[in-house]
Structure of Site-specific recombinase, phage integrase family:
Amino acid sequence: MQKSQTSKNIIPFIDYVPAELRENNRWEIIFYAKDPYETNPTKQLKRKRHRVKPMPNIRERRKHAKHIVANLNKKLQIGWTPFIQDDNTKLFTKLFDVFDIYIRQIEQQVDKDSLRSDTLRAYRSYISNMKAFMIETNRKECFIVDFKEGLCREFLDMIFYERNNSARTHNNYLAFIGVFTRWAVKRRYLKVDFTSLISKIKQGDKKRTIIPKEAREQIFNYLTETNPAYATLCKAAFYCLIRRTEFTKLKVADVILKNGIINVPAEASKNRKSQIVTIPLELINDLAIHLRTANNTDYLFSADDFKPGIAILNPKKISDVWIKTRKHLKFNDTYHWYSLKDTGITNYLQLGIPTIDVKNQARHYSISQTEQYLPKHILKAVGNIQSAKLNF
């Protein structure tokens, strides 16, 4: 049999050079594989030797060697390398596979009410965009070990600079990358969380659009005529400051009209805490009419055209109907559905209601969060400082 060729004549693969038998004085199987721990990219392909034990029958020895070569090449083709330490094997799982594993776990958490469906929707979107970026930059086949600071910086730069997204969007992606990375570290797909090395981009103040009374009344009047159940939902957002996804999880039993309150249970609340909100007198009658034929076990606003019912409402439906309403009334695109809540908070503060009470109604995590809604024109100078005779 003719001796096999030297490695110089072998066509190199990206991560390995296939194994071959060399029948010299000492029979050896030679192959080159990627050493992932080598920092110099020009030296990552390293040679490995495997001695073929002597046998009385040359034919049997050659057959045995070919079997080893075939097995080695099969393993090399699927990404195996002899330089991986046993406790680090998960580092070389394909990144796309890890993304899919992560999303499956998030789906299970949503099914068990441990996470909100909005969270799953956002995470799917983040990962979809990351996958598209990896494909576009020829990284589809990379391993989770390649998920490093440099790659993530490149992705975030694309999001912020090339796509011209806001600082808030950049920071949201960075926050997600941090969540995913910490999950991967805990499950030994990664060794370190590098995200603390990437800084957030400074955000400007959040722009909030206040819907003036005239426009608000026009919206409520139109909806009361065309979709009274949805009108009640929008009014409840304005008066009770309840969030979109929370509305889809509230039950009729959570509304206690005689006490003038709505209980937002932990399983429905964004912050996973059970809290009470007050129903203003201006909303009581609308809710009483909305609930007149409802059962306590019904959803407060269901998929049955927002009426109380047994089918859970998709949060997106709330926004979709709002957009149609806004277009029909020819209002500015800056009037978002959540502008109702922003307007409610601002109006409560303008009425002089103590900030702590507004904070509790909005279920903010701190007074400072509520104070961000304070219109500057209602702020006044501190009297004892204003009148102080400081020049003495």
Summary: Residues 220 and 226 are 10 Å apart (CA to CA). Residues 58-77 form the longest helix (20 residues). The chain has a mean pLDDT of 88.
